[in-house]
Amino acid sequence: MSHTLPALNYAYDALEPFIDAKTMEIHHTKHHQTYVDKLNAALENYPDFQNLSAEDLLRKINEVPEAIRTAVINHGGGHANHTFFWSILKRNVDFSGEIAEAVGDKFGSFEELKKEFSQEAALLFGSGWTWLVLQGNDLEIVTTPNQNSPLMDSPLTERQIPILGLDVWEHAYYLKYQNRRPEYIEAFFNVINWERVNEIFLKNK
């Protein structure tokens, strides 16, 4: 199986003015495409792993041959993380459903979730991701460096299932926001597809 770039189900300008069309186009067709291409190249001589999805490669990362493990983390992670990210973006979707109830139970309110999530995203050094994950039956906010995924096995934590994720690499926001990462994080909360996030939550809780 060759990994392929997933099509977006919306136009590149659909998230304007919060995320600009040019950033979306470059992010999708250049950055994400590069992760796909390099993942396929890494797997070229390893047929036993070619039929696994990017997500399953990450879940089984300790079984991936050491010679390509870093490439799979970097490029398989980039592919899986971005595919997830595109799927949870949409304007004008109300925060509701069982995810809203779970957020209220865990954080007290949407505003408190937004505050804690935004702080973690703003303070993340360098490039990486900020996530709302299910860890067991509990919601947690975590960060991962580079293209690392919460799906990967860790000796320190129970497996984490992404419910919400924000790309805080500079390529995700620099054309519009330059060094103003907090403004980009604020914008993100205007383009979350809460219906999709609720579906992911219900599927995995």
Which topology of the largest domain does CATH recognise? Answer: minor pseudopilin epsh fold
Number of domains as seen in the coordinates: 2
CATH architecture of the largest domain: 3-Layer(bab) Sandwich
CATH superfamily of the largest domain: Iron/manganese superoxide dismutase, C-terminal domain
Query: Can you tell me the residue ranges where pLDDT is under 50 for at least 5 consecutive residues?
Result: none
Distance between the termini: 30 Å
- Helix coverage percent: 40-55%
Strand content: 5-15%
Largest sheet: spatial strand order: 2-1-3
Radius of gyration: 17 Å
- The overall average pLDDT, rounded, is 95
Alpha-beta classification: mainly alpha
Summarize the main sheet. Answer: 3 strands, antiparallel
Query: How many strand elements?
Result: 3
Large-scale geometry: globular
Describe this structure in words.
The chain is built from nine helices and three strands; from the N terminus they run H-H-H-H-H-H-E-E-E-H-H-H. It is mainly alpha-helical. It has two domains: 21-87, Fe,Mn superoxide dismutase (SOD) domain (Helix Hairpins), CATH 1.10.287.990; 98-204, minor pseudopilin epsh fold (3-Layer(bab) Sandwich). A three-stranded antiparallel sheet has the order 2-1-3, with helices on both faces. The longest helix has 23 residues, at 21-43.
